[in-house]
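Hello, quick one for you while I still have it in my head. A protein chain has come my way and I'm curious about its shape. I'm sending you its amino acid sequence along with the backbone structure tokens. I'd be grateful if you could look everything over and explain what you see. Here's the protein in full, and shout if anything looks odd to you:
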Amino acid sequence: MEQTAEVVVIGAGIMGCSVAYHLAARGVRDIVVLERDQIARGSTSDAAGGIRLQFSTPTNIVLAQRSLEVWERFEERFGVDIGLRQQGYLFLLRSAAEVAEFRKNLLLQQSLGVPARWVSPEEIHQLNPAVVLEDVLGGTFCPRDGWADPFTATMGFASAARRLGVEIRQHTPVTGITVQDGRVSGVETAGGAIAAPLVVICAGARTREVGHMAGVEIPVDPYRRMSFVTEPFPAVPSTVPMTIDFQTSLYFHPEGPGFLFGMSNSEEPSSFQRTVDDEWLLRCVEELAKRAPVFEEARVKTGWAGLYEITPDDNPVLGYLDEVFGLVVAAGFSGHGFMQGPAIGACMAELLLDGRATTADITPFAPARFREGRLAQEHNVV
């Protein structure tokens, strides 16, 4: 007998688990989440865990604010310690164009209540004495920003969703999406079909291929990103903020007794490659030692590669897909998915149950914007 559900969610990363939880918390009782691997084992588990309020668009700023409110009280609300460390995000700027863009963004952030501020090279030295500043013109810093453990946080949402009756099926890839008369009618899996009037695609880097199952084009492509962690390294204070050289995208922050660091490769083409490139590791180490020479003495303990899910304007695709009634997407976060997970879950539940999102206005990120040529570019992308 074919199974039925009110809602099928495809993907059990931070987004799928948050969407399922928020729907269940609103009273939806027949939700099935389908995951091709295990909970939080896709892009979520490979994320650096950053949480920040410093964005360049109002929608992203509000999504980040609403999410941070949840992250700050996550243990109280969900009974799970996600290891939140609010030591700030420090952006280092080295060109007049970067300074102009970040000062403009700073005014927007402050107008929306973000406690970010401009910092001079002297103030940057106080925040992170390890950084070389000869070519740094200034930067921005927000003390509420920080980082947490993405895997633990996602499992917290998954456990809470299950307590509310959500069924999460691991190792159950979706093999097809059924559409009848322009309306979604369910999904197909190796374990059988599930009939449902609503299907939410939260498939991360695989969103485009999942959309193809319904004959829909969703412009989300996978790009490899690598992160590395050093051996214990007390030479740099463990209290320094997440530090980002915006020009190169190099970032580093304390991680346990060591430091986590990485850098994006703008020349690497889209792929599902998730192996570590030793040559890129050397390039990252060189840039890290150039920006903070003390790290020449550090040793790399481990490294891994994950996938960013990138769209043409570095912003997510959120909402109903016009081509198929009842087919919804929440994907393409371009590196911001984990940090925005709580608010996105709430927004999607509001959209599905109330007709519009009120936690944040997500209409600028509607899927139709690509077809209509009204992109919503996010500039603060690492």
Remarks:
- The longest strand covers residues 300-310.
- The chain has a mean pLDDT of 97.
- Residues 337-354 form the longest helix (18 residues).
